[in-house]
Amino acid sequence: MAKAPFAAQWIQAGADIFQWGRKAAYWKGKKGWWASRQGVEGIKGPFRTPGAAQKWAEEPFREQHRQAQQKLHDEALQAQEGRKAKRAAQQERLAELAQQREARELATWKGLPAESRRVLPGQVWAMRDPRFEQHQILVVEVKKTIAVVLARDARATPWRGLAPESRTLTHLPRLYRLVGTAKVPGAATRKSQA
User: Is the Cα dihedral 136, 130, 104, 94 positive or negative?
Assistant: First the structure.
């Protein structure tokens, strides 16, 4: 942030008399230059040059200006650091969420890489909920958004003879996890008929 320069509003109020509102003044006297400023009893002098008198008259106001500018600078710096810390925390949180999501995906897809995570015929899926993990489905056929499956409530139940059901492809990874593969009953028969 660029600091604003100190600027005093000096006005020539007469011959060799300069005034800055009610804040300060300096003028030419008998033995040199004299000055007065707000908050100081009496006058100060003599000064050899008008510049020295003006400098003394402006001194407290220069300091006030410097302190105000420093305060603005510190506040801007603090705000910038706050934004950086917030952005870093946000990025850390996003990375953590991505890791958690990837860990869930790996658990759902039994460690398959991202490019191989597709519902395919022959996959066996079990319910995510451990209380119902005996409930399994075997993917028989995959259509555009639907998977035709066979569902069983116990591992001991054979796939053959079960009635086909449908599940949406987005529904599968949310409620089920991939546990393995199995031969689709009647697949060889369907191929020979085709």
Answer: positive
Q: What angle is formed at CA 161 by the lines to CA 164 and CA 177, rounded to 5 degrees? A: 55
Residue range 37-87, pLDDT digits in tens: 987 777 888 999 999 999 999 998 999 999 999 999 999 999 999 999 999
DSSP designation for 180:
E
Report how far residue 6's alpha carbon sits from residue 20's, in angstroms, rounded to the nearest whole number: 13
| pLDDT tens digits, one per residue of 73-111 | 999 999 999 999 999 999 999 999 999 999 988 888 888
pTM for this prediction: 0.54
Q: What residue type is assigned to position 78 of the chain?
A: Q
Q: What is the DSSP string of 108-150?
A: HTTT--GGG----TTEEEEESSGGGTT-EEEEEEE-SSEEEEE
Radius of gyration of the chain (CA): 42
Rounded to whole angstroms, the Cα distance separating 57 from 39 reads 11
| Contact predicate 125/182, CB 8 Å | no
